[in-house]
Structure formats: structure tokens, C-alpha cells
Design brief:
- The protein is globular, with a radius of gyration of 19 Å.
- The chain has 2 domains: 172 residues, HUPs (Rossmann fold); 93 residues, Pantoate--beta-alanine Ligase, Chain: A,domain 2 (2-Layer Sandwich).
- Helix 6 crosses helix 7 and helix 8 runs antiparallel to helix 9.
- The protein is of the alpha/beta class.
- A 6-stranded parallel β-sheet has the order 1-4-3-2-5-6, with helices on both faces. Strands 7-8-9 form a 3-stranded antiparallel β-sheet, covered by helices on one side.
């Protein structure tokens, strides 16, 4: 497994792989890898000759009051996990290399960044789109794999790739859940056992909406009311949003239909968790 910590070496490595006629798959991460990441990375490994994983905690996608400084970091552990599953190269650039002096160029996907998380995290998706574009330019992958748990991020990246005519195929991977139903997330590490139990109500609320929809209920308010009952019974500290939106443009729907998305963001003692389910 090749360890690459600078942009020039990463570009050189990718150029050589491409000249040899091999296909590169790429998974960008912020580290703190868990089983969900590893399943996604294994999928990436299976669709290409060479699999590259980046580890970079991107400050541009964190707000001033968010958890950048306490975001879990364990590079040695991450390296060990990636070596075990046969990743070919890890790219872990330095902050000053990715954002040099007086950095001032950003990418925005104007409409898709506005709803859901975008309402509450201004600038977040600008930071996401910018770092992903930079990583695509450096790693030069044929395929890039993203998880569906960050569904809005996935749609933002797909739109950026389409609008800017980027030569990379975006592949989505289904949400990976714990046995309890809780969506796997690096931020789950912040939760104690009691908080994890409460957090399970988030996926339970989503599954409840899906079950109701499958019986023929389509009215937004009817679908959301019982979900709120589940969340309130679990004493979830704060529900930032619980919405039914179009699965492509993320516009809110009054009547749910096949392919629509139910998305939620909630906080437990300051830890922000997101989840979603397709109808």
C-alpha cells in the first residue's frame, strides 16, 4: 500500500496508473473509518484496478461553531484498516497544501446546497464541492464512490460533475446500518450507550414513514406526525429538520411519491446525526 502525503506525488502516481491503462477508483474520507466506510471502499476496490482513499479533514465544510477541532482523528488506525482490505494508495495531504496562502476560489452548486442541511449549515456544501473538485483534479479517478447517508452531498457532487463536464463516474453506495438500525457515522463515536439507544429512534422514525407510505398514505403531515411521536418519545434533544423531498432536486413535497426522500437531522447532547430513506 502506497502512502502519499503531497499533491505532486499523488498526481505523478495517478498519471502512471493511467498511462499503464489501469482504472482508478477513489473514495474521499475524513478518516475515523468505520464499517460503513470499509464496505464502501471494498465496493470501490471491486470496480477498478487501483483503489485510492483520501483522508483529509476539510475545515471549509465546518462552520465556526461546529466540531472541526474535536472531530475524531486516528491516522495510524485508519492506515491499518485500509491495508487490511487491500487499498492500493492512501492520500493524506497537509492542510497548507490543500488551502495555500490567500486561497479564494470556491465552487457552489447553487440550488441543491440550499435545502435541508444547507439551511442550517451555510457554506457547508461550498466547502464540500470545493474540496471534492480539488481531490478529483489531484487523484484523477475514473470512478468515485460516495455513501447515500450523506444524500444531499451526493446530489451536490453529481450535479457539479455534470455541470462542469468532469470525466469521473459517481457511484453511490447504500447506507450501512448497525444491527439496531442506527446509520453508521464517525460521529457515533461521540455517543455513550444511553445516547446510542436514543439515536436508534431516528432510523425507527424513518422506517415508520416508509411503512406508512407502503400502505398508501402519501400526505406529508400524516406521514411526519407519527415519526415525530417516535422521536419525542425518545426525548431527542433537537430535531433540526424532518422533511419529505423530491429525490433529485430536494424540493419539499406535500404529497409523497415513489423515489422521494425522507431526510432527518437531529442532535443528541450536541452531536449532530443525519439519516434518510427513499420511498
Amino acid at each position: 500500500m502506497k502512502l502519499i502525503d503531497n499533491i505532486a506525488d499523488m498526481k505523478s502516481y495517478s498519471d502512471r496508473i493511467r498511462v499503464e491503462g489501469n482504472k482508478i477508483s477513489f473514495v474521499p474520507t475524513m478518516g475515523a473509518l468505520h464499517t460503513g466506510h470499509l464496505k464502501l471502499i471494498k465496493n470501490a476496490n471491486n470496480i477498478s484496478d487501483i483503489c485510492v482513499v483520501s483522508i483529509f479533514i476539510n475545515p471549509a465544510q465546518f462552520g465556526p461553531t461546529e466540531d472541526f477541532n474535536k472531530y475524531p482523528r486516528d491516522l495510524d488506525k485508519d492506515k491499518g484498516l485500509l491495508k487490511e482490505i487491500g487499498v492500493d494508495a492512501i492520500f493524506f495531504p497537509k492542510l497548507e497544501d490543500m488551502y495555500g496562502d490567500h486561497f479564494q476560489t470556491y465552487v457552489e452548486v447553487e440550488e441543491l446546497q440550499k435545502p435541508l442541511c444547507g439551511k442550517l449549515r451555510p457554506g457547508h456544501f461550498k466547502g464540500v464541492a470545493t474540496i471534492v473538485l480539488k481531490l478529483f483534479n489531484i487523484v484523477k479517478p475514473h470512478y468515485a464512490v460516495f455513501g447515500e447517508k450523506d444524500y444531499q452531498q451526493l446530489q451536490v457532487i453529481k450535479k457539479m460533475v455534470c455541470d462542469l463536464n468532469l470525466d469521473v463516474d459517481i457511484i453511490s453506495h447504500p447506507i450501512v446500518r448497525e444491527q439496531s438500525g442506527l446509520a453508521m457515522s464517525s460521529r457515533n463515536d461521540y455517543l455513550d450507550s444511553g445516547q446510542r439507544e436514543k439515536a436508534c429512534s431516528i432510523s425507527q422514525a424513518l422506517f415508520n414513514i416508509k411503512q406508512q407510505f407502503d400502505t398508501g398514505i402519501t400526505d406529508r403531515n400524516n406521514l411526519l406526525d407519527s415519526a415525530y411521536s417516535i422521536l419525542n418519545k425518545a426525548n431527542i434533544d433537537e430535531i433540526e429538520y424532518l422533511e419529505i423531498v423530491d429525490g433529485k432536486n430536494l424540493i419539499e413535497k406535500k404529497l409523497a411519491g415513489p423515489g422521494d426522500l425522507v431526510a432527518i437531522a437531529a442532535r443528541l447532547d450536541g452531536t449532530r446525526l443525519i439519516d434518510n430513506i427513499r420511498l
